[in-house]
Design goal:
The complex is a heterodimer of chains A (177) and B (156). Chain A is mainly alpha-helical. Chain A has helices at residues 6-18, 32-56, 60-87, 95-112, 116-145, 149-175. Chain A is elongated and about 45 Å long. The N and C termini of chain A lie far apart (50 Å). Chain B contains 1 helix and 11 strands; from the N terminus they run H-E-E-E-E-E-E-E-E-E-E-E. Chain B starts with a helix and ends with a strand. The chains are: A mainly alpha (177), B alpha+beta (156). The interface between A and B is medium-sized, with 17 and 13 residues.
Chain lengths: 177, 156
């Protein structure tokens, strides 16, 4: 059975882009291996954004935030890696994870094209939007779709970190002119 | 007959005396086993004992860092008490005095801890996740924005 339809992808991406959680009512299907892949890719993308921040920004607050994103998302990936190894699950690429990666490539290109002052604003704006979208996706898609109890618990445990990142990003956003 | 009666009465008094002594001895052993200092209230034959409150500075208060929160986020302590933060989260955290950065821990990985002997009320936060905040209230006093650093001791 095809686990993920194009409709599902479209709904998920509308969530990723808009932060809406309307997709939750559509009940799209993802296997646990696909959920694990999406979770890991979503964390890797934010680490990549933080890498660009370190390359381009000289703002102490931006650099500190980026460092926290790198460390926290690495910790989450490490936890997810240990769990899938324990469960004997191999994360499986899927339409959602591939679309996340292709969209991230475009965002990274846009961020690299910004000047220093423009970059700080663009980076933190993107962090706010990205965390809103990922929170909505974890709550509305990944957790409901996960069958394994331990994987579900891990996703639930990640949510407070994501929400704290969002609040932190919004705080920095207010200070960046 | 009267002599015999008086002797019997004296023996009865002695029995009561030794019974009381025996009871006191048992209570004393129990108190020692519990490791608490206790004192007699009325000093009489029937003993009721109460625990003395711990001396100021004797208490250790634990704050767990879990799910991106300090739990509890407000700790009421006595002057000289120790606060221990234990990171039970999946990401690193630290503990940093808010107003003047008077003290701060190193980043704590999951499972590690930081302890601090406190003498003044103060607020703190996690400098890695600045929205995470907590307070230590010493003897119910207001939080001052100036003052000398408290004694800092790290433990991993």
């Amino acid at each position: 059975m095809r686990k993920l339809t194009k409709l599902t992808t479209g709904i998920f991406m509308s969530v990723v882009l808009s932060g809406s959680n309307a997709f939750a009512q559509e009940n799209p299907k993802l296997s646990d291996a696909e959920v694990a892949s999406v979770a890991v890719v979503a964390n890797q993308i934010d680490i990549a954004y933080a890498d660009i921040a370190r390359e381009k920004s000289t703002n102490a607050e931006i650099l500190k935030f980026a460092e926290t994103m790198t460390n926290d998302h690495r910790a989450v990936i490490s936890q997810a890696g240990a769990l899938v190894k324990k469960l004997g699950v191999t994360p499986q690429d899927n339409d959602v994870s591939r679309k996340l990666l292709s969209d991230a490539e475009k965002t990274k290109k846009d961020l690299r094209a910004k000047s220093d002052a423009e970059f700080n604003r663009a980076y933190i704006d993107n962090e706010v939007a990205y965390h809103k979208a990922v929170i909505a996706a974890v709550e509305g898609l990944l957790i409901p779709e996960t069958e394994n109890a331990e994987l579900k618990t891990l996703l639930q445990n990640i949510l407070p970190a994501l929400k704290t990142h969002l609040a932190h990003a919004e705080m920095v956003q207010k200070r960046i002119k | 007959m009267l002599k015999w009666f008086r002797r019997g009465l004296n023996e009865l008094r002695m029995q009561r005396y030794f019974s009381g002594f025996f009871l006191l001895a048992i209570l004393s052993v129990c108190c020692n086993e519990q490791g608490n200092e206790k004192k007699s209230v009325d000093g009489g034959y029937h003993e009721f004992e109460i625990a003395e409150p711990p001396a100021s500075g004797d208490m250790v208060h634990v704050v767990e860092i879990i799910q991106m929160k300090f739990v509890p986020d407000v700790v009421n302590v006595s002057n000289g008490d120790t606060v221990v933060w234990i990171n039970k989260d999946i990401v690193d955290h630290d503990v940093t005095e808010r107003h003047r950065n008077l003290w701060r821990s190193s980043p704590m990985a999951g499972g590690s801890s930081f302890k601090l002997a406190v003498t003044k009320s103060q607020s703190y936060y996690c400098s890695l996740h600045v929205v995470m905040q907590g307070k230590i209230i010493v003897d119910g006093n207001e939080i001052a924005t100036t003052g000398s650093p408290s004694e800092i001791t790290m433990c991993q």
